[in-house]
Known about the structure:
The structure holds three protein chains of three kinds. By secondary structure, chain A is of the alpha/beta class. Chain A has helices at about 5, 10-20, 35-45, 80-90, 100-105, 135-150, 155-160; strands at about 25-30, 55, 65-70, 95-100, 125-130. In chain A, strands 2-1-3-4-5 form a five-stranded parallel β-sheet. In chain A, helix 2 packs antiparallel against helix 6 and helix 3 packs across helix 6. The mean pLDDT of chain A is about 85. Residues about 1-20, about 95-100 and about 225-230 of chain B have low confidence and may be disordered. In chain B, the strands form two sheets. Chain B has a five-stranded mixed β-sheet with strand order 1-2-5-4-3. By secondary structure, chain C is α+β, with helices and mostly antiparallel strands. Chain C has a single domain (about 70-365), classed as Cytochrome-c3 Hydrogenase, chain B. Helices cover about 50% and strands about 10% of the residues of chain C. Chains in contact: A-B, A-C, B-C. Chains B and C meet through strand 3 and helix 4 of B and helix 2, helix 9, strand 6, strand 7 and strand 8 of C.
Amino acid sequence: MGLVESGKLPKTLSKLLNISRKYSIWAYQWGLACCAIEMGAAFASPRYDVMRLGVIPFPASPRQADLVVIAGTVTDKLAPAVVRLYEQMPDPKYVISMGSCANCGGPYWDSYSVTKGVDQLIPVDVYVPGCPPRPEALLEGIILLQERIAHEDMAERWKGEPIVVG
Amino acid sequence: MSQLSSADTTTETPAEDEAPVEVDERRQAVLDELTRRLGADAVVGSHIEPGYDLWVRVTREAWPEAAVAAKAMGYTFFDFLSAIDWLPSPFGRDMDAQEDLLGDPAPAKEPQPIVQGHAGGETRFQLLARLYSISAGMGVLFKADLPDDDLSVGTWSETFLGANWHERETHEMFGITFVGHPNLIKLYLPTDFQGYPLRKDFPLLARRVRPWPGIVDVEPMPGGDDSEGDGE
Amino acid sequence: MTATSDPTQLSELAARATDNRVNLDFETEGMTLNMGPQHPATHGTLRIVARLDGEQVVSAEPIPGYMHRGYEKLTEVRSYPQINTLVNRIDWLGSFANEVPFILAAERLMGVEAPPRAQWIRTILFELSRIANISLFLGDYGLQLGGMTAGFYAFRDREHVLNQIEAATGGRFHPNYDRIGGLKDDLPKGWIANTHNAMDKILAFCDEMDDLLIGNEIFQSRTRGIGVIPADIALSYGLSGANLRASGVDWDLRRDSCPPGLVYDQVDWKVWTHPDGDCFGRTWVRFQETREAALIVKQLLDTIPSGPVMAKVPRIIKVPEGEAYVETENPLGAMGYYIVSKGDLVPFRVKIRSASFNNISVVPWVARGAYVPDLISILGSLYFILGDIDR
């Protein structure tokens, strides 16, 4: 109906929508390296269960995902695939960069084949530091993202400049 | 170098096999057999680490035959194949901390000479490969010199199928051509990558842009005195 | 579960293997299937370009390099303790195992030997990393073949081992615990008893996996007779570890050429081989190795000597000039480091011989004539870690 985009939605209703969005995230894991194992432990193991936060892992494809967690080293050879993945996701989409390699290049900061941080390719919402971050750290990152979503202004997001990648 | 496995009270002379250690004789026998098969002018250098390893340096022309000869002698397990660039790095070792300079009298300004390692050598690039024999329980390390103006050598991929990928990697990292290789294209790097990364004169650009601050021994206490910072 | 050496079964398997040869009689149009860098069935970013003839694979070419981080160049500008940190991340599931051959090679060049207590603890952690690595393999292999339950059980039971590694070293993964001359720290109080408990749980997990996965009919029909690699081809490609032992070659670096620094000669254990060389054989060998590793750890825990855990080494480590190569039996295969040192703080060249690199180079040979689901079976059973292939 266009209420959200034009900003005419009453505040309580937009808060309700934000809460419902933050508790229904479908998270796509782009697990590349060691952080993928910790992400797997966070998402799939019964010990650090992520589903209790309302985040369901393992969507069938990135076209159905809200959140992508980039976990691991991004190399220059893989960079086009990351950008393509990000473009395939529908709005509103969020990115969590997990681990030092995805944040800034990490221990391979001087390598000739590593992209120094995934934020050189796509915009990142939450950075989770660590090498590898404990599964609890990733869960905290997801909670931070949920807080951010709860205070988000959807009208701004729709009206603002589109995020152009590349 | 202390002898850890063979506890005979022999002197610690490295390499020259004066020590009557049994394993050492085995390696000497392997070296003699290889020399017999390849010809004495093909085997131009060797080094035995008693109890540990045997290095054999062959000529570039004899490189493919060395594989065939070793395989016939029972060295059927292909371990790895790579190369060594003996040029000392023109960028130094990129660690200029106070700790490092304490021992050196003065930093050397002139270019360092090229010094090869075990089994000698005369050129900048040396091929390195290892084969292992499961029945003998021993491995042999092969080296070969490559002249700077013609970095090419015969392929091992007919004798040892696993050498296919190793030679591709050596090709893209050092620029060495393997004659007779079925598919000598890049393995790891993207197709438009320029340069040969493992050569010593290939710089790591991130370190040129921002030099490593050095080995930090103790971080200064936070909020303490405003000293010049950590270790510089 | 016994290995088959029955000649009729073997000939039947061989006939089935030759049956899968490529059928080029029909005039069909091929298709190129790109199992892209990101795929649930590859352990990471491995890309396989397969040319298909119907459902059969005519050629399969793995394209590595999507996780190439340039280790061999990075080691030329880092000091030995810094390399130790970096090297943990090659085989990122059994991380402690990556440090061991590097430290042993450096110790050989320096001429130091770790004290006995350190050698014991090093071997215990080496075997714990093997359990952590292979239990995930078992779970993940089940996941790839469609039996998702195995994956969850593996993640759950792996936590016991990771707990113990974390209690001793401070990190669930990437412990960075080994040092030239010994270990970083001694064990905390109560660790030995807790590890005994953890090993009991791992043995129970192995029994569960036996029923759930290895004994499962579907698993057996998807893996028996698939991807047969004869021993001479395996040796020529340089396959190592369980892949080679599943082709009948009785070779284990822990028993045959154990480097000084590890204490496998003090323990009573067995090497498992399988004559078939198919996917089932490889899985079965790994499975038995996990059980064996738990038993080895239990024996070692009972006999830990007391004493210091670090030999006298200078604080700033300068390794004398020389070259050394040490290879050990890592969870993935035979991993080795060739260190060229010029007497400096920083090595001159480090060549990393990683097991998965050779293991995956056999894929073009073994995938010819396989069907697409069999390709998944074969890849899973060869078991690689991308960090190990790409370094």
